[in-house]
Amino acid sequence: MHTLMKAFVRDERGVSAMEYAVLAGIVVLALGAMAVAFNDNASAMFANLFTQATTAQGKA
């Protein structure tokens, strides 16, 4: 049993999988934050475009 525990502690295959999981989590969080930020900017952009289009239509 002692030998099995030593082998388990020295085994580093799971460490690289854990690193990839943490990296994937960071990427997902970053993409989520960007989506939230972009959503606000996109809404403002289309509202501004609609306002300008209706204003320009009234002047023509």
Structure report:
- Keywords: Membrane, Transmembrane, Transmembrane helix.
- The chain crosses the membrane at residues 20-38.
- The chain has 60 residues and is mostly helical.
- It has one domain (1-58).
- It contains 2 helices and no strands.
- The protein has helices at residues 2-10, 13-59.
- It is rod-shaped.
- The mean pLDDT is 83.
- Annotation field: number of helices: 2
Task: Specify the structural class.
Answer: mainly alpha
β-strand percent reads: under 5%
From the alpha carbons, calculate the radius of gyration and give it in angstroms. 26 Å
Organism: Paraburkholderia terricola
Protein name: Pilus assembly protein Flp/PilA
Keywords: Membrane, Transmembrane, Transmembrane helix
Transmembrane segments: 20-38
Question: Summarize this, please?
Answer:
The protein is an all-alpha fold. It has helices at residues 2-10, 13-59. The chain crosses the membrane at residues 20-38.
How is the secondary structure organized here?
Layout lengths: L1 H9 L2 H47 L1
List keywords for this structure.
60 residues; mainly alpha
